[in-house]
Every structure is written in C-alpha cells, then in structure tokens.
Write a structure and sequence with these properties.
Blueprint: E1 9-13, H1 17-28, E2 32-36, E3 48-51, E4 56-59, E5 65-66, H2 70-78, E6 85-86, E7 93-97, E8 103-106, H3 129-134, H4 147-150, H5 156-170, H6 179-188, E9 199-202, H7 206-220, E10 224-226, E11 233-237, E12 240-245, E13 251-252, E14 258-261, H8 265-271, E15 281-290, E16 303-307, E17 313-317, E18 320-325, H9 336-350, E19 360-371, H10 375-378, E20 391-393, H11 406-423
Parallel strand pairs: 1-2, 1-14, 2-10, 7-16, 14-20
Antiparallel strand pairs: 3-4, 5-9, 6-9, 7-8, 11-12, 12-13, 15-18, 15-19, 16-17, 17-18
The structure holds flavin-adenine dinucleotide (FAD).
Flavin-adenine dinucleotide (FAD) binds at residues 13-19, 36-39, 44-46, 60-61, 63-65, 230-231, 262-264, 267, 284, 286, 366, 369-370, 395-396, 404-407, 409.
Length: 426
C-alpha cells in the first residue's frame, strides 16, 4: 500500500535571503512554516541597521542587482516590495578613473549582438574592438581556469572592465576567480542586451526591499519566526533528522516534517561535518560617510564605478555616501580609522569635495562576505538534497550555478521549497 502522506511543518533555519525566500514560498502555499534565526534580526549578510555614530539607517554593505537577476526580482515582487528597487530606465554604468580623472559611462546596446562596441565613443576609453573580442576566450574556459588564465592583464580593458567586473560579480580577484562563472555573468547580462543589465539598488535600504516585507508576509501567512534561536546540533536516526537542538528543549520533527538549513557554509559544515562546502571566504569592506550636504550625481544614477583607487563602487543615498571594496582580504586587516581615511580620499576625489574636514564615517568589515569563487571552491558546492530524506540545504553557496549573490540565495531557497512541494504535495 502506498505510504499515506500528510503535510507537516517545515522548519527553516537561518533567516538570510535564502531562508526567507524558502519560507515565504512555502507559507504562501498554505504550509506550516517555522523560521529560526540566531541573530536578533533577519537578513544575514543583507541587512540594515540604525547607526548611532552617523545617526542614519545604513546597510551592512552596498548591494547591486541586475535586471538579469530574475529570481531575486520576482522574490521582491512576491513580498510586495517591487517598487522599492530603483535604477535608470536604460542600462548605464558611470565610471571615473581616480588616477587619470577620466570619466565615462558604459551603455550597453539593446540587442543581443553588441553592435554598440563598433562605436569607439561607446567603448571604455583607450580600448579597441579587439580587446572585447578577446573577452570571448572566457567562453572556452575549462573548469579549472581562472579569469587571469583567459584574459590579458596588460590590455587596457583589464583594469577598466574585466578586473572591476570580476571583483564586483565574484568578490574574488581575477587571478583566482573562476573564468567559467564570470562567463555565466557576461552571458546572462551583457550578451543579452541592455534590458538584462539594468542596475538596480534598494532605494530605502536592504531591509526595506528584501527583509522586512518578507517577515511581514510570513507573519500574515501564519508562519512563526524565532529570533535569537541558534541551531547547535541536529539529532539524526538513519536517513532522517529527528530533532533540531537549539540549546533549550529540542524541536522534534514529526514524520511529515522537513528541515531546511539556510545557514552560512562554515556553520553548515560544523553541524554536518561530512558535508563538503566551499571552505574559503573573501571579505568585503564598506565605509559609510555622512556629508553635510548631499553631493550631486546624475539623478537617475545613484552610484559610480571607481577605478585606479582603492574603492570599487560609490553609492549615494541622501547625505550618506557608501564605498565598497570587494575581495578585500588585505584591507580588512587594517585599522578601521586608516581604512576610513583612505576611502575618504577616494570619495573626495570622485565627488570633487574638499578633503578637510573629514566627515563622520563608519567602516563595516564583512570578513565572510561570500565564499571565494575559485574553481576549487566551486567544485565543493553541495546540492540542496542531503543523505537525510527530510533535510535540505539552501544558501548562496550551494550548487545553484550562480555567483554567491542575492540571486543565488533566492534560487537556492526556492529550489528547497519546490523540492518539499514535490515530495509532500498538499
Ligand atoms: C558587504 C556585502 C556586499 C554584497 N554585495 C552584493 C551585491 O552587490 N549583489 C548581490 O546580489 N549580493 C551581494 N552580496 C551577497 C549577498 O548578500 C548574499 O549572497 C546573500 O545575502 C546570502 O544570503 P544567504 O541566505 O545565503 O546567507 P546569509 O545571509 O549568511 O544567511 C544565513 C543566516 O543564518 C543565520 N545563522 C547562522 N548560524 C546560525 C545558526 N546556528 N542557527 C540559526 N541561524 C544561524 C545567520 O545569522 C544568517 O541570518 C553582498 C554581501 C556582502 C556581505
């Protein structure tokens, strides 16, 4: 006789974007969902907080989405925050070279074939058509090739496009970043025309776009959210997880219950020592600077790419300017005061501001911002399923095929939700 299936509770552990995306999907299907989070707030690596020094609500770090991030955008729609993402009506990426002072705006063309590259005025200054054609070498990259293995680091396009793109998309230096993963980014964005590479940012901060509306949607759907609930151990029996141990009374899993671990890779590996995970990470450093007067950037482009200095990107929200340095292993070891001073120099130069007096600044070092997206680490991304029938994994680091981004986190959370819906139809 076929086993009678009942619909149990889904216990989602970790309220980062992956856990939220999973929980929202399931709760909206009318399932019983419980979400547990070790911190006192949701969002994980994508969060906002009230900063007492700046007296402003700020994000842990600048986050940029592209219109190619279809799952991330549909998640934001699903939680009712679609209008909170803003960006220019046409894809445009303004840049300044802090060494030479040159400024340019990259404006990809409409079609899939990048005809716009034939026009020298639309290319990155100092680059020829051949530089872009050489970029196609990424398409033939093998699984162990790095970006630097495939491209010429002496070509002018390297420091003005390939290096910033690699560091922004993969948070890993091109000398060690996976060429195949970078190719996926190029193929899904720049090679699909400007409609796939429109930049989008959270108008009112990360929490308002990605986190708070998700928690509200969960509560409306009757899901329970427990903060300050750190999973300490899993009790297993054969091919099933029997209980989740949060330090107080263990949460027993009924025969129809599921558990989804949407945790950072290091935590997942501590809980499941036999699980292979990408075991190296790379930091991102952000400095938030409160200015007396909001500076001027073109109205529909609240960000600026920086080359030739220390920072990679500058974002502007009201009177707060935020600079990002990705793949920042060496910088993260410096004192925050020294980092602030160096990044203020970049800011003053980029925005043509007087360098004295230095304004109020806050440095945030995210030491494990993403896993190191090297060929070796990519080969250690596990699938959503585990050897325990009622335990699934989610997180930007699981094997979604995408770089460790919000898009990957959402994809992983939704993949876990789909799996549960398939195995336990309502
Ligand atoms: C500074 C910075 C800049 C970034 N920029 C971009 C960008 O521009 N574009 C982009 O798309 N992505 C960007 N990212 C990446 C993006 O933030 C992540 O990919 C995404 O937030 C990962 O979500 P996640 O749910 O997979 O993991 P996490 O956010 O790490 O979520 C895991 C959650 O589990 C919780 N947890 C940990 N241990 C336990 C435990 N034992 N029990 C219970 N809960 C636990 C954590 O507190 C956390 O809330 C950036 C990240 C950083 C840090």
């Amino acid at each position: 006789m076929a086993e009678a299936r009942t619909v149990g509770t889904v216990h989602v552990v970790g309220a980062g974007i992956a856990g939220l995306a999973c929980a929202v999907r399931l709760a909206r299907q009318g399932r019983s969902v419980r979400l547990y989070e070790a911190a006192g707030q949701a969002g994980g690596r994508c969060r906002s907080y009230d900063d007492s020094r700046l007296e402003r609500r700020i994000d842990n770090g600048n986050h940029l989405l592209l219109s190619a991030n279809t799952e991330a955008l549909s998640y934001v729609e699903e939680i009712g925050a679609g209008r909170s993402l803003i960006g220019p009506p046409r894809a445009a990426f303004p840049f300044v070279d802090l060494k030479s002072g040159e400024r340019w705006t990259l404006r990809p063309g409409r079609g899939a074939v990048p005809w716009w590259l034939l026009n020298p005025a639309r290319r990155v200054p100092g680059t020829g058509l051949g530089s872009y054609i050489a970029g196609l070498r990424l398409a033939r990259a093998g699984p162990t090739d790095t970006v630097a293995d495939c491209l010429d680091c002496h070509d002018p396009l390297w420091s003005r496009f390939w290096e910033p793109l690699t560091v922004a998309a993969l948070n890993t230096a091109p000398e060690e970043a996976s060429a195949r993963l970078l190719w996926l980014v190029v193929r899904e964005s720049f090679l699909r025309g400007e409609a796939a590479c429109r930049p989008l940012i959270a108008r009112d901060g990360l929490a308002a776009s990605f986190v708070d509306p998700a928690c509200a949607a969960l509560r409306r759907a009757g899901a329970e959210i427990s903060f300050n609930a750190r999973l300490r151990a899993l009790h297993t029996d054969g091919d099933r997880v029997q209980a989740l141990d949060f330090g107080a009374a263990p949460v027993a899993l009924g025969p129809a219950d599921w558990s989804v671990l949407a945790l950072p890779p290091t935590v997942a590996a501590e809980l499941l020592p036999e699980l292979p995970v990408p075991d190296e990470s790379r930091p991102i450093v952000n400095v938030h600077i409160r200015l007396d007067t909001p500076p001027r950037l073109p109205p529909d482009l609240p960000f600026l790419g920086l080359v030739g200095g220390l920072a990679d990107w500058l974002f502007l929200r009201g009177d707060v300017v935020s600079l990002t340095v990705s793949a920042a292993a060496a910088l993260a070891e410096e004192r925050s005061e020294a980092i602030a001073e160096r990044l203020w120099r970049d800011t003053a130069q980029a925005l043509a501001l007087p360098s004295e007096p230095a304004p109020l600044m806050r440095v945030i070092k995210e030491r494990r911002a993403t896993f190191a997206q090297t060929p070796t680490s990519l080969s250690r991304r596990p699938p959503a399923t585990t050897r325990w029938r009622n335990l699934l994994l989610a997180g930007d680091w699981t094997d979604t095929g995408y770089p460790a981004t919000i898009e990957s986190a959402v994809r992983s959370g939704r993949a876990a939700a789909r799996r549960i819906a398939m195995d336990s139809p309502k």
